[in-house]
Amino acid sequence: MKKIKPYKIAGAVTLALTIGFTPLSGFVPGWQQTASAKASQQEPSTFWELELQNAPFKKNGVVFVPIKEMTEYLDLIVTFTPNKKYLYVSSPRESIRIKPGQSTAINSKGTVLSLGAAPVVKRGVTYVPVSLLNKGFGIPIKWKGKSTVSLQGSKEYASGAAGGKIFWLNTKDGTLLTGHAGSVPRKAGKVSIQNVDRLHITPRKINPSSYVVDINNVHGEPHIHESRTRVLIHQGKIVKQGTTNYSNFSGRSVNPDINGYKGNVAIMNGSVLQLVHPTGKVVKTYDLAKITGVEDDFSVEAIEPEFLLVRPYKDATLFIVHPTAKKSIQIYKKLPLDDEAKKLIEEYPYTEAGYVGDGLTYTGYKNQMLTFKWSHPFVDKGKTFTYKLPF
Questions:
Q1: Distance separating alpha carbons of residues 77 and 71, to the nearest angstrom
Q2: 3-state class of 51 per DSSP?
Q3: Distance (Å, whole) CA 223 – CA 333
Q4: What's the N-to-C CA distance of the chain in angstroms?
Q5: Residues 176/238, Cβ–Cβ less than 8 Å
Q6: Tens digits of per-residue pLDDT, 67-125?
Q7: Using one digit for the tens of pLDDT, what is the confidence trace for 290-305?
Q8: In this structure, what are the phi and psi dihedrals at residue 130, rounded to the nearest 5 degrees?
Q9: Fewer Cβ atoms within 10 Å of its own Cβ: the N or the C terminal residue of the chain?
Q10: What is the SS3 assignment for 297?
Q11: Burial of 299 (0-12, 13-18, 19+ CB in 10 A)
Q12: Is 232 exposed, middle or buried (0-12, 13-18, 19+ CB in 10 A)?
């Protein structure tokens, strides 16, 4: 169990550097507040104690700390070169290169830092001398014995890495920074995001000059409200972004938007879907509210040459959309579902646990036939349906 204990130091100097965290491998709405989330609430002048799962240790007078675990509580991220020759520890204002087996490191300006000892690996965990944090990032940190350290600072960024680049999102003002490991990141622009609470960002590389950053923000109490923002970055600058919002009262599973179609990025903004070239040029626009007659924010689950599959968040029922004729069909009404199933879809309250919308999951398309799995928590056995392309 990880624990933190805050305490004030009179006259403590405000931490000048802020350093990012490695994103979670998955994101579940309503996940419990962790020590890293609590760390983000600390005042910069507050020292707080942290109990680590991987205990620090001292060897030949040098204190070692588990660097990957420390990134969960500080604005730091750890990345490796593809050949594992170098390890980088980076922050929004600094990036330091470390070569395994060496007791020195090099910062973004080329300055050599003496660490006092080389990083070591114990039971698969990488430990670095605490001097890396003190000297390289200006983070006051002390080992209190056993698994406890005390440190100073606040957490202000969410971070992620892809294709050799690191992305930092300031949770206070929405500023997005980006840069290669080994360099100081630069401002890419600002992300329009409100009610920031529990953020998770996922970047991906499109080509050498274009990247996408997906941002999930779960907020409010008891954290049933969620926003999804997709940001397109070209040549280091934000060129397009879009956001959808919904309230997940029932806790149902929500599919992510597909990445794109034929090299273009799919960006949802409310009920408007745009296919955007990696340079930022809009190639195609769909006003899904007008096409379906449903006033809501949407997710897009499939795009093929012959059709699109989209779903409004509240009703959560799939529509098949013609790619050019601006017409749509609500799919479940065309399937051989029995009266009980259709009644569940149409009458069960969307605010109640167990609500799944139409319960349809798209599984594939071949020879003009779409395939769906259907399941509902109040029906014992699921079914598989095929649906002929209606256009």
A1: 6
A2: strand
A3: 32
A4: 56
A5: yes
A6: 999 999 999 999 999 888 999 999 999 999 999 899 999 999 999 999 999 999 999 99
A7: 999 999 999 999 999 9
A8: -65, -20
A9: N
A10: coil
A11: buried
A12: buried
